């Protein structure tokens, strides 16, 4: 068989182009377009989770394009009904949500709750951090503890939506310090950005959020982290747990993804396959490490059971704290 020099060069160029492509680029993505619904304002934990999913999915070649919609307010209770009504039966759509939504649904007596969407996977867990502005009057945990014991109503604390994880954590701390959690001076914000601004502006005494939402301000020296709410310290973060400080409280904020109601089992399986591959990717492992998120991956039926148990446990805690 003979081949001309021109044909040989053309073949070589084609082979070179093929070899230059990363392996995933030669495979068709699972979704050409995936719609990501975030029932919170940009800049918060749910939005950060959604963007991290996008980065990992694109790096792994699992999606061509991701379209985002943010609808904030009331711990997800403004956006959730919209997602349920507008995305019903759509198999190319995911919503980010988490434990905040459980408490918010109870606090707001919402007719539409997490039970109205299709659980796909629990992804991460993040301990809360209690922080104060560097230029504020409170400098140490002992200062904050003394102020709460003296008068909880005088200690304003910024966090996420009313009835959410941050609100519940504050109530638990106040109760553990011997005061009535109903006296909490909690100031709710729809997203991490506005809460950060209120803390840095001295509009509140302290703030509660996931560590990743305060990390930039803490590293820049504008905030001081006084305590974290997990069972153990966050790796690489030299901040004591509440239990180390003598306060018998632990809490963590989980986040996951949900599909719309009314999808078929085949559509659900495809979304589970997608998020499972995102979770297994090197890019996602890097996101977990960078953001100091704990990996608590769980899919479908076990996740459904976990949500139901979480709802029931949260109802009990919120009634104890006077939040439900």
Task: Write a concise synopsis of the structure shown.
With 324 residues, the chain is an alpha/beta fold. It has helices at residues 5-20, 45-59, 79-86, 99-107, 141-150, 165-176, 192-200, 211-219, 265-280, 282-291, 300-320; strands at 31-38, 63-70, 93-98, 118-133, 156-159, 185-188, 206-210, 223-228, 252-259, 294-299. The termini are far apart.
Descriptive overview:
This protein is α/β, with parallel strands linked by helices. Helices cover 42% and strands 22% of the residues. The protein contains eleven helices and ten strands. It has helices spanning 5-20, 45-59, 79-86, 99-107, 141-150, 165-176, 192-200, 211-219, 265-280, 282-291, 300-320, and strands spanning 31-38, 63-70, 93-98, 118-133, 156-159, 185-188, 206-210, 223-228, 252-259, 294-299. Strands 1, 2, 3, 4, 5, 6, 7, 8, 9 and 10 form a ten-stranded mixed β-sheet that branches. Helix 2 runs antiparallel to helix 10 and helix 4 (99-107) packs across helix 11 (300-320). The longest helix is centred in the C-terminal third of the chain and has 21 residues, at 300-320. It starts with a helix and ends with a helix.
**Beta strands, count:** 10
Query: Regions with pLDDT < 50 over 5+ consecutive residues?
Result: 1-26
Number of helices in the DSSP assignment: 11
End-to-end separation: 82 Å
Helix content: 40-55%
- Report the portion of residues in β strands: 15-25%
Mean pLDDT: 90
Coarse shape: globular
Major sheet size, sense and barrel closure:
10 strands, mixed
Order of helices and strands: HEHEHEHEHEHEHEHEEHHEH
- Radius of gyration (CA) equals 23 Å
Structural class: alpha/beta
């Amino acid at each position: 068989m003979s081949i001309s020099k021109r044909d040989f060069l053309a073949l070589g160029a084609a082979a070179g182009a093929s070899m230059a492509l990363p392996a995933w680029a030669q495979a068709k993505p699972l979704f050409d377009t995936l719609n990501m619904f975030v029932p919170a304002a940009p800049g918060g934990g749910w939005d950060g989770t959604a963007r991290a999913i996008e980065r990992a999915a694109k790096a792994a070649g699992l999606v061509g394009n991701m379209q985002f919609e943010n609808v904030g307010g009331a711990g997800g209770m403004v956006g959730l009904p919209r997602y349920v009504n507008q995305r019903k039966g759509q198999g190319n759509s995911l919503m980010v949500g988490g434990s905040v939504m459980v408490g918010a649904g109870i606090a707001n007596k919402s007719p539409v709750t997490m039970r109205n969407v299709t659980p796909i996977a629990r992804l991460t867990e993040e301990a809360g951090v209690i922080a104060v502005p560097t230029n504020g009057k409170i400098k140490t945990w002992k200062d904050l503890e003394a102020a709460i014991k003296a008068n909880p109503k005088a200690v304003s604390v910024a966090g996420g939506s009313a009835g959410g994880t941050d609100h519940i954590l504050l109530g638990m701390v106040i109760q553990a310090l011997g005061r009535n959690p109903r006296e909490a001076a909690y100031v709710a914000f729809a997203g991490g950005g506005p809460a950060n601004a209120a803390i840095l502006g001295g509009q509140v005494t302290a703030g509660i959020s996931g560590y990743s939402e305060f990390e930039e301000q803490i590293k820049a020296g504008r905030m001081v982290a006084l305590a974290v709410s997990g069972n153990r310290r966050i790796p690489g973060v030299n901040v004591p747990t509440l239990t180390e400080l003598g306060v018998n409280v632990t809490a963590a904020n989980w986040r996951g993804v949900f599909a719309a109601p009314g999808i078929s089992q085949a559509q659900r399986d495809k979304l589970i396959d997608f998020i499972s591959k995102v979770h297994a990717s090197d890019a996602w492992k890097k996101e977990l490490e960078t953001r100091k998120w704990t990996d608590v991956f769980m899919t479908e039926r076990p996740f459904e059971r976990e949500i139901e148990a979480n709802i029931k446990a949260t109802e009990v805690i919120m009634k104890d704290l006077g939040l439900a």
